[in-house]
Amino acid sequence: MATPAMESADSVFDSYNGESQLSEAETALLKDELRKTEEEIQTLKQVLLARQKHAAELKRKLGLNPLVELGNDINKGLKAVTDTEA
């Protein structure tokens, strides 16, 4: 049994499910905007990957590894608990 909210969502979906009344110019503009947005997303993914590699290199140079970081996190957590209880 569908709730009123679900029926409302279905009607909204149906109105945008390929049945919209966009002109050719509007369709072209939207497709161009989508293409640009997807390109920007790809660029941001590449930048993020480069920054992650850089961070990993810095950690390596500092002698930080996942085990050391885990130990530091545990120590910080224990300190926070003991400070709270005191």
Brief overview:
The chain has 3 helices and no strands. It has 86 residues and is mostly helical. It has one domain.
- Please mark out the parts with pLDDT under 50 across 5 or more consecutive residues, or reply none: none
**Cα-based radius of gyration, to the nearest Å:** 25 Å
User: How are helices and strands ordered from N to C?
Assistant: HHH
The tally of strands reads 0
* Number of helical elements: 3
Domains (count):
1
Average pLDDT rating: 85
Helix content: over 70%
Q: Report the principal-axis shape.
A: elongated
Q: Helix/strand-derived class? A: mainly alpha
What's the story with the biggest beta sheet? none
Strand content range = under 5%
Straight-line N-to-C gap: 55 Å
Characterization of this structure:
The protein has helices at 4-16, 24-61, 66-85. With 86 residues, it is mostly helical. It has one domain (24-85). The longest helix is centred in the middle third of the chain and has 38 residues, at 24-61.
Fold blueprint:
Blueprint lengths: L3 H13 L7 H38 L4 H20 L1
Descriptors:
mainly alpha; 0% strand; elongated
